[in-house]
Amino acid sequence: LMEQLTFFHDHTMLIVIMITVLVGYMMSSLFFNTYTNRYLLESQGIEVIWTILPAITLIFIALPSLRLLYLLDEVSDPAITLKTIGHQWYWSYEYSDFIVLEFDSYMIPSNELDTDGFRLLDVDNRAILPMNTQIRMLVSAADVLHSWTIPALGVKVDATPGRLNQTNFLINRPGLFFGQCSEICGANHSFMPIVIESVTTKTFIKWI
């Protein structure tokens, strides 16, 4: 999905650049030429052209945009469901496909951090997920608005009290993926990081 979003961005920017160059060329040619036509009062042909061409251009932008919009909401047979609940100011995780495994994830304070830890980003309990597996995220909040966001995975889901939001993703490599709440949720909004640890399926089963 991230790749598709990048392709769509490039596609749209190409159209914008073409329009900018065309309009810039036409404006500069109007400034620097001395052609006049004293008898041109109207031209229905030109009006038809400058109405139809932008409409066709908008269609070229709208069709891939709508396709991508529906792709983002599509959940294709997830193997694992991870439920996340935002609190002031920490996250709770629940793996309900296996035994009911629940834990809270707090940021590690700077004075308790190991030498190889990441300041303001590391947590005491990481969410462990298997790579190359379709994962469904269910996101909600217990108190105020939060937002579960991991830029490296292209995931941003609002955590709203009383509402269950859903997204899906697939991690294609092992490693640590960091994120933070991206909704202003109070005094300690900056101190509720998210850490996903991607491991092999064998390691994940052993951890469970």
TrEMBL record:
Domain of life where this protein originates: Eukaryota
Membrane topology field: Multi-pass membrane protein
Domain Cytochrome oxidase subunit II copper A binding intervals: 77-208
Cofactors demanded by this protein: Cu cation
GO cellular component: mitochondrial inner membrane
Keyword Transmembrane helix: yes
Alphabetical UniProt keywords: Copper, Electron transport, Magnesium, Membrane, Metal-binding, Mitochondrion, Mitochondrion inner membrane, Respiratory chain, Translocase, Transmembrane, Transmembrane helix, Transport
Pfam families recorded: COX2, COX2_TM
Residues passing through the membrane, by range: 12-36, 48-72
Substrates-to-products reaction catalysed: 4 Fe(II)-[cytochrome c] + O2 + 8 H(+)(in) = 4 Fe(III)-[cytochrome c] + 2 H2O + 4 H(+)(out)
Gene3D superfamilies in alphabetical order: 1.10.287.90, Cupredoxins - blue copper proteins
Statement: the UniProt record of this protein carries the keyword ATP-binding: no
Chief localization: mitochondrion
Ranges where the Cytochrome oxidase subunit II transmembrane region profile domain occurs: 1-76
GO MF annotation terms: copper ion binding; cytochrome-c oxidase activity
Binding note for cofactor: Binds a copper A center.
GO BP, sorted A to Z: ATP synthesis coupled electron transport
Compartments reported by the entry: Mitochondrion inner membrane
Binding partners and assembly: Component of the cytochrome c oxidase (complex IV, CIV), a multisubunit enzyme composed of a catalytic core of 3 subunits and several supernumerary subunits. The complex exists as a monomer or a dimer and forms supercomplexes (SCs) in the inner mitochondrial membrane with ubiquinol-cytochrome c oxidoreductase (cytochrome b-c1 complex, complex III, CIII).
Function noted in UniProt: Component of the cytochrome c oxidase, the last enzyme in the mitochondrial electron transport chain which drives oxidative phosphorylation. The respiratory chain contains 3 multisubunit complexes succinate dehydrogenase (complex II, CII), ubiquinol-cytochrome c oxidoreductase (cytochrome b-c1 complex, complex III, CIII) and cytochrome c oxidase (complex IV, CIV), that cooperate to transfer electrons derived from NADH and succinate to molecular oxygen, creating an electrochemical gradient over the inner membrane that drives transmembrane transport and the ATP synthase.
Family: Belongs to the cytochrome c oxidase subunit 2 family.
Protein name (database record): Cytochrome c oxidase subunit 2
